[in-house]
Amino acid sequence: MSSATPRLSSSSASSSSSRREKRIAEKEKSCNVQVVVRCRPPTKEETAHQVIECGQNTVNVGGRVAKHLRKSFLFDGVFGPDSTQNDVFASAVSPIVEEVLEGYNCTVFAYGMTGTGKTYTMEGGAFRKLERGEGRRVKEKRFSVLVR
């Protein structure tokens, strides 16, 4: 009795490889999670000690006082203290609304400590149109697309 190892021809191997790459791409698309951070404006005390520094995709925490405690965190996107509601919507939320309108299930949620601006980001300021929150902007975009 001899034991034979099946061999794939080069065309079979390449088609098998392309099928595998396709499955991986589909899996990545179905499991896409992005984490975006919005840094609120610092308090006077935080400004004095430079507790938080916001970069393009990083947030550095620790500042000058506690050099041994400095930490750096990497995110898919970071909105600094000067960012507006429109900045957040245009870069992070609007593409998700587009995906919802294409039939994908999507979720946007705000998570963080008390007083960090979750409610302001999602619901907005009381009376100023420019400060309206992401929830209201999503509704406006959704209905403006459906009306077209």
Can you tag this structure with a few keywords?
single chain, 148 residues, alpha+beta, 2 domains, two-stranded parallel sheet, 43% helix, 11% strand
Q: Can you put this structure into words, describing what you see?
A:
The protein folds into two domains: 37-81, no CATH class; 84-148, no CATH class. Helix 3 packs across helix 5. With 148 residues, it is α+β, with helices and mostly antiparallel strands. A three-stranded antiparallel sheet has the order 2-3-4, with no helix packed on it. 43% of the residues lie in helices and 11% in strands. Mean pLDDT is 75; it is low at 1-13. The protein has helices at 10-30, 44-49, 85-101, 118-123, 134-147; strands at 36-38, 52-54, 58-61, 71-74, 77-79. The N and C termini lie far apart (72 Å).
Low-confidence stretches: 1-13
Strand order of the largest sheet: 2-3-4
Supply the number of helical segments: 5
Helix content: 40-55%
- Biggest sheet features: 3 strands, antiparallel
Termini Cα gap: 72 Å
Tally of structural domains = 2
- Let me know the number of strands: 5
Secondary-structure map:
Elements: H1 10-30, E1 36-38, H2 44-49, E2 52-54, E3 58-61, E4 71-74, E5 77-79, H3 85-101, H4 118-123, H5 134-147
Parallel strand pairs: 1-5
Antiparallel strand pairs: 2-3, 3-4
Helix pairs in contact: 3-5
Quick take:
With 148 residues, the protein is of the alpha+beta class.
